């Protein structure tokens, strides 16, 4: 009830009470002074009662208003300016020589979200499409939890853990590697990072292609960034669980996942953008990493993430089953959502990297996984991922000498106009 309505009702009641107290007074000449006095007292009492009633009504009405519409304190919200959640992510793209089937599937799946999709053939390093090329060719973003497969490979290689190792992640709660990757447990990987130390984590990040250029003759590509010392915010533990201090590009992410998918062959990524480059495409091997024996444990965790972990939304139980890792965090400008994946486990035919940016809570790793799932579903409907499909390139890859994990960071420099700008040694 509003205050004005309450006051009107009380005034009406008070007026009736005043009239009622006056009306019964006898109309006689004798004692008229007493009658007048009585009338005055009655009027004063009624007026006083009305005033008190008005005050009580106003107080009650105010209290009710305060209860129903209390004065809200503004919540502390991290605002991100200039990075919208929704945008035309195809603006400025040159997609003339992209694979048309993959391109259309990626554009439709990304929809109105502000993000990028990079699709790569893990068997030869060919980039099939890049949606939102300005974003994909930028200087990189914090990898969030997508750094965890790299940390897992490092820990397995150094013997810090094996497939049966259990690490305490909370009081009386333990996890193995598969569960930690599936549920993206931060404490598990922070602990691994602290055990191995900064130099080991940095070495394996470089070995997997982070912090350097991945492309062959892709002049727009920029290298990501690796820190020269443990980050001040959380040290090597946070670096190993959130990617603190690291900047990774979608192309670097795609190269890393392609290397995991194909068993350790690190190809130069190539993006044919002319009829001649497309027709004369030949794979170029950058390194052959000796990591095949370590990959089953990492792949089990990436598969578990899709089956029952953070990436469940990437698979519809109909299309080819992907393996992947989500990442959700924020930088100083926006929220960030990653999903890095490939399909399928036995015959990997495509790598998908989805990056999302924006200020809305919808921007996270599980949503990026859902976008990838839409692409996988569309490609399944198009029969694209079968070996005899028109989009499947079966050109053999040239052999390359095997490189041990101790020497893998010294890769040759690709012919790229930006090769000397920003590439880490």
Write a short abstract of this structure.
By secondary structure, the chain is α+β, with helices and mostly antiparallel strands. It has a 5-stranded antiparallel sheet with strand order 2-1-9-8-7, sandwiched between helices. Strands 5-6-10 form a 3-stranded mixed sheet.
Question: What does it look like?
Answer:
The protein is α+β, with helices and mostly antiparallel strands and 425 residues long. It folds into 2 domains: 3-68; 100-403, Beta-lactamase (3-Layer(aba) Sandwich). It has 13 helices and 10 strands. The chain has helices at 3-22, 32-68, 100-110, 133-136, 148-157, 177-183, 186-196, 198-207, 235-241, 250-262, 275-279, 295-308, 365-381; strands at residues 115-120, 127-131, 167-170, 173-175, 265-267, 285-289, 322-330, 335-343, 350-358, 402-403. The strands form 3 sheets. It has a 5-stranded antiparallel beta sheet, sandwiched between helices. A hairpin with a 6-residue loop joins strand 1 and strand 2 (127-131). Helix 5 (148-157) packs across helix 7 (186-196). The chain is globular. The N and C termini lie far apart (73 Å). Mean pLDDT is 82; it is low at 13-77, 390-399 and 408-425.
């Amino acid at each position: 009830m509003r205050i004005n309505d309450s006051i009107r009702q009380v005034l009406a009641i008070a007026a009736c009470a005043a009239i009622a107290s006056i009306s019964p007074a006898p109309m006689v000449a004798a004692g008229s002074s007493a009658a007048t006095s009585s009338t005055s007292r009655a009027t004063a009492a009624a007026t006083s009662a009305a005033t008190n009633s008005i005050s009580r009504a106003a107080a009650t009405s105010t209290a009710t208003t305060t209860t129903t519409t209390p004065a809200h304190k503004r919540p502390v919200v991290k605002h991100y300016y200039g990075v919208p959640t929704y945008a035309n992510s195809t603006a400025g793209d040159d997609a003339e020589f992209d694979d048309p089937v993959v391109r259309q599937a990626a554009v439709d799946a990304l929809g109105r979200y502000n993000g990028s999709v990079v699709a790569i053939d893990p068997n030869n390093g060919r980039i099939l499409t890049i949606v939102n090329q300005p974003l994909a060719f930028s200087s990189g973003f914090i990898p969030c939890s997508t750094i965890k497969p790299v940390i897992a490979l490092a820990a397995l290689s150094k013997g810090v853990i094996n497939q049966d190792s259990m690490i305490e992640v909370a009081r009386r709660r333990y996890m193995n590697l598969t569960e930690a990757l599936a549920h993206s447990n931060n404490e598990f990987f922070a602990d691994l990072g602290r055990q191995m130390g900064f130099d080991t984590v940095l070495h394996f990040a470089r070995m997997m292609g982070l912090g350097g250029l991945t492309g062959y003759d892709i002049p727009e590509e920029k290298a990501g960034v690796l820190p020269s010392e443990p980050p001040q915010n959380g040290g090597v533990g946070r670096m190993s669980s959130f990617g603190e201090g690291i900047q990774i590009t979608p192309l670097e992410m795609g190269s890393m996942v392609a290397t995991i998918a194909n068993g350790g062959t690190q190809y130069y990524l190539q993006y044919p953008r002319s009829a001649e480059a497309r027709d004369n495409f030949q794979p170029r091997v950058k390194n052959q990493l000796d990591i095949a024996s370590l990959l089953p444990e990492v792949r089990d965790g990436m598969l578990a993430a899709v089956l029952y972990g953070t990436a469940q939304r990437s698979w519809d139980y109909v299309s080819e089953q992907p393996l992947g890792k989500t990442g959700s965090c924020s930088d100083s400008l926006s929220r960030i959502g990653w999903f890095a994946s490939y399909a399928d486990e036995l015959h990997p035919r495509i790598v998908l990297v989805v990056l999302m940016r924006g200020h809305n809570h919808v921007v996270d790793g599980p949503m990026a996984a859902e976008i990838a799932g839409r692409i996988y579903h569309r490609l399944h409907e198009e029969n694209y991922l079968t070996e005899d499909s028109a989009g499947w390139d079966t050109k053999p890859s040239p052999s390359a000498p095997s490189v041990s994990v101790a020497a893998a960071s010294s890769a040759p420099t690709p012919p790229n106009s930006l090769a000397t700008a920003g590439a880490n040694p």
